[in-house]
Records
---
Amino acid sequence: MMIREKGYTHWDGILRERRYPWWPITRLGIKLTFKRKHFKFLFFGSLVPAVAYLAGIYISERIEDFRYILRGSQRFLQINPAYFKSYFTSDFLLFMMVMILVFCGAGLISDDLKYNSLQLYFSKPLRKKDYFLGKASVIFFFLLMLTLVPGIVFFVMKLIFSGSFQFLRTYPWLLLSVIGYSALVTIFFSFYTLLISSLSKNRRYVGILIFAIYIFSDIFFGIFFGIFKNQYFSLLSLKGNLQQVGALFFGQKPPFQVPWLYSFFILLCVCFLASAILKKKIKGVEVIK
Amino acid sequence: MSIELKNIHFSYGKVKALEGIDLSLSEGAVGLLGPNGAGKSTLLRILLGFLSPDRGEGRVLGYDIKQEQSFIRRYVGYMPEDDCLIPGMDAVSFTSYFGELSGMPRQEAMKRAHEVLFYVGLGESRYRLLETYSAGMKQRLKLAQAIVHDPKLLFLDEPTSNLDPQGRKEILELIEDITSKRDIQVLISSHILPDIESTCSYVVILNKGRLAAQGKISELKEITYRLYEIKVKGEEERFLEKLKRMGCKVDETEDKLIKVYMPSHQDLMEIFRVALEEKIQIRHFVKSQTSLEDLFAKTVGVD
């Protein structure tokens, strides 16, 4: 190996405080996720429902042209908050979001723990919150691509296809619902993923845990509900809680006869718990007291 | 002064890691020595702001170690002891990434990353995935990320650990080259005493969380003691006992060579006087060249 042919040289630039110190972390996280095998296929596959719903919006405005296809299904193509809610809280979309978390979120912290890179991060002028924000923004990016972006596109396309602002006048709050629910689901899943990612140095275990907790929370709800016929067991299900709060955001009837506030409280508790654990676990050095 | 510490105390629960450390370091390469558990790593962590001292105060590059850690970290480079990498990256992106996190503009960081990777000898393999790097290459990579932003102060934690002799020699050459720049100060924590002796002019020795010695290596070796190597014939137990009572530290090697660390105020002839009293024949008597290892053994009390 050739060593120091010309000796150590100084860099003549000036080190500056970054406005968004977390941005390089986010950019790297997104880049490395896209490099993962099969991720592109999964990600674009998870956009299929968005394309289908967009097609639905188009067809709803050209109902006469598509009468022969629709037959008795016109009711499905009424574009209203229920239409938006059915997209945002669909089992398939939530499932695909969890699958994306497995790919993009599992290694976010666990890899840093495994390969000792935390001490490199924190030997730079980076605060803990910058580190977390950088990591969480990777999840924000992918989940908002599945929630906020399609939601806004649906809304805008509805206005374009209808050629009037009638939809906006009828549901002026709908855009806020889209933004609010997208933010809620993204923030919840970010905390959920980062928490699990900080619990193990093995990204495979983390991936399995992210998936298993989501699925088994729903299975347990099914089992208990089957035995006791009590809808309050829906609070055990992460999916159930998200759907319950989602219904509230879009002004629809909740799927379970349980106050939505309970579900919201549970999601909030998970976020607080994650925040407390992450704050305690993530340090520049491991200190055993 | 680049590092100034006053009465630094730190405990891990009930275990006292540092007790009343006072340090004042200005320029050049400084070796940080001490046996396991002496508090070297804790001291480095405090200097980097990873840990906040329980008591005492300090400044690194003029910034307060309790309040202004982010300023310190901007101008300090840190090469940790453990292997550190980010899977899926190559050396160029890795090095420029940490340059960016230090506050360099993105393009400048990329340009500088190429430069430092050539400098540390990873130029040819800078586009290889980090997971495929050998131990020596990972060590160079850590050095590259530590110097990419051209720090004013460089902390090197065991820079030559896990390296073969050739790799160790090359890393030491790099460190010597960096320390030859007068405007970069280097603090090297190492167990390998010859490494410290070859790269540093100043040394700080910690023992059980306290400052055991500090100063220029040459002066410490001269002032604190003289070392004599002796071989004797006869019952040596009482002879050694008397030397110890005189204030000498005595070590015996496997091949029966007795090393006598004699305080500077003692008269050399005392050794012969005691030998005469105990009817001991001195068969070999050499004033030894004192090494840092000897100084370390004398100061810390271990071989």
---
Amino acid sequence: MSEIEQLSCQELVELVTDYLEGAMPEADRQRLDDHIAGCDGCRDYVAQMRTTIALTGEVRPALLTPDVERALRDSFRDWKAT
Amino acid sequence: MEHAVSVDDKHLVEALRAGDERAFEQLTREYHAPLMRVAQIYVTSRSVAEEVVQETWLGVLNGIGRFEARSSLKTWIFRILTNIAKTRAQREGRTLPFSVLERPDTVPEPAVGPERFLPPDHERWPGHWSSRPQPWPEDRLLAAETRGVVERAIEALPPAQRAVISLRDVEGWSSDETCNALGVTETNQRVLLHRARSKVRQALEDYLAETGDE
């Protein structure tokens, strides 16, 4: 049996998004899962990426300012009048 | 790939054509923030981006009668925005954004600084953590302050990365929707998303480490 190339932690952190996006061939995914199973640092790293995504989801998008809202309403009414 | 026109789209288009101001308000509220994010990939200043977005809405109103539903309403609106923003960028003499969207990986940006890992010639553990990430304190993650750290980290990103993380992780759009709105390939979208998320994670790590110990 040939030795399977080990994934380093430095390589893993560049593959996390492909991993979380489900954009990885099965064999690579397995290699990554195997690495995480034996590496606390990478396990915590992946957990932090998930937390980062969840916290970003808590951010509220910017609202329309009253000025912009007024300008848009005016544009709409002008458009409707023509 | 893109879905056939949704029921929502159909209602919105009909309402707009009929001159329903509420339908227009609903659309502008929903898409204002994402349109601003995408406009800022092309034009530098916030005020010019605002103008581009307003011009986009005029384009939407003037074109809605001819909208043929070959794409989703959303994709169609973003295509109008992109055309207007590109024209505006050309006038400003900027060409950078195109390469940022088409070849986002020309300049390497490691997700984690190389100093955090053992050197490649290390005898036993090349490329393994020398300074591993520490688990984050759950209670502090929920604090409003932490959300502020995330917001500032997003604002500090280069515009294309900021747009992608805003659409995907703030707005909760799918990768298809995001690719269509930005006109980027799935792979490039993922590169931009990866860089954006990695930097926001790093900002959180820095923040939580700095105030974690007394």
